[in-house]
Amino acid sequence: MKFAVIVFPGSNCDKVLYYAIKDGVKADVEMVDFRNDSLAGFDAVLIPGGFSYGDYLRSGAIAGHAPIIPAIKEMANAGKPVLGICNGFQILTEIGLLDGALIRNKNNRFICETVPLKVENDQTIFTSEYQQGETIMIPVAHGEGNYYCDDKTLARLKANHQIVFTYEDDINGSVDNIAGITNEKKNVLGMMPHPERALEELVGSADGLRMFQSVLKNHMDRVNQ
Amino acid sequence: MTLVKVYVTYKKSILDPQGEAITNAIHGMGFQDVNEVRMGKYFEISVDESSNTLKEDIEKICDNLLANPNMETYRYEFVDSEAVQ
């Protein structure tokens, strides 16, 4: 299985994500510059955290018009795994692959700490190695992670089990404490917390590793069928 | 030359923590009559020719880039930029 890590100007979690795949789950991974317009040969796309284009205009707004974006949309439409973390989540909402928007944290503060998340749906390709309702410890690092969507969208997310992670405490004002959601087909996941920063106990938590293991395992299971 | 002024603001339902912080600072300056500040963005777009599709073009630019319709609204006005100078 081959993963692409997209690199925008201002991405800063790209190398950790690369490490998560290469050394964490020992799969093929390549950095892909935002100026490319093809993702041929890749099985999954990872959009890293950071501050693409310095968060000018809105977080993720300018990155949403980069040359690589149509190729990411193609991967998503083809049912391949697309994972956006932090700024990656913001970009996925900006390009319409995920519902809602990320706005400034309710308390106006940049939050940088490891927080408990609840696994709300263990039936996705990203979460099959977790248990339904399990609490996992994952670091967050964001100033604009306050998830917003209107009531109609929220009802749809709930009905279709698209809410995958919630914060156990209200850390940023997100609607229903939402920390991560998928698209309707559940092959696109966006989340503010950083699983790639929780790969081994040495750094405080190894709970993030199972997300990458889930994606790899589900891919291999499908290939071997 | 036409100058287009675009104003982007949060929808009423959206919390504006920056606006709240500014309101608090204004109260700190002693202006207790100020009830609320909502912060937005202002753009000046200079366009070469005023074509027939200018209005549509500006709306596309706003819908797809300058504003996020999930949380923001916008309004715009055209100004004859020669007159401005």
Automatic annotation (TrEMBL), chain A:
Keyword terms of this UniProt record: ATP-binding, Cytoplasm, Glutamine amidotransferase, Hydrolase, Ligase, Nucleotide-binding, Purine biosynthesis
A GO term (biological process) for this protein?
'de novo' IMP biosynthetic process
Its localization reads: Cytoplasm
Write down the chemical reaction(s) this protein catalyses.
L-glutamine + H2O = L-glutamate + NH4(+); N(2)-formyl-N(1)-(5-phospho-beta-D-ribosyl)glycinamide + L-glutamine + ATP + H2O = 2-formamido-N(1)-(5-O-phospho-beta-D-ribosyl)acetamidine + L-glutamate + ADP + phosphate + H(+)
Q: Which InterPro entries match?
A: Class_I_gatase-like, PRibForGlyAmidine_synth_PurQ
What's the name of the protein?
Phosphoribosylformylglycinamidine synthase subunit PurQ
A cellular-component GO term for this protein: cytoplasm
As for what it does, the entry says:
Part of the phosphoribosylformylglycinamidine synthase complex involved in the purines biosynthetic pathway. Catalyzes the ATP-dependent conversion of formylglycinamide ribonucleotide (FGAR) and glutamine to yield formylglycinamidine ribonucleotide (FGAM) and glutamate. The FGAM synthase complex is composed of three subunits. PurQ produces an ammonia molecule by converting glutamine to glutamate. PurL transfers the ammonia molecule to FGAR to form FGAM in an ATP-dependent manner.
Name the Pfam families on file. Answer: GATase_5
- The organism sits in which domain of life? Bacteria
PANTHER family membership: PHOSPHORIBOSYLFORMYLGLYCINAMIDINE SYNTHASE SUBUNIT PURQ
Supply the gene name. Answer: purQ
- Coarsely, its chief localization is cytoplasm
Which pathway, per its entry? Purine metabolism; IMP biosynthesis via de novo pathway; 5-amino-1-(5-phospho-D-ribosyl)imidazole from N(2)-formyl-N(1)-(5-phospho-D-ribosyl)glycinamide: step 1/2
GO MF annotation, one: glutaminase activity
Origin species: Companilactobacillus versmoldensis DSM 14857 = KCTC 3814
Assembly and interactions? Answer: Part of the FGAM synthase complex composed of 1 PurL, 1 PurQ and 2 PurS subunits.
The active site lies at 86 (nucleophile), 194, 196
UniProt-listed SUPFAM superfamilies:
Class I glutamine amidotransferase-like
Recorded E.C. number(s)? 6.3.5.3, 3.5.1.2
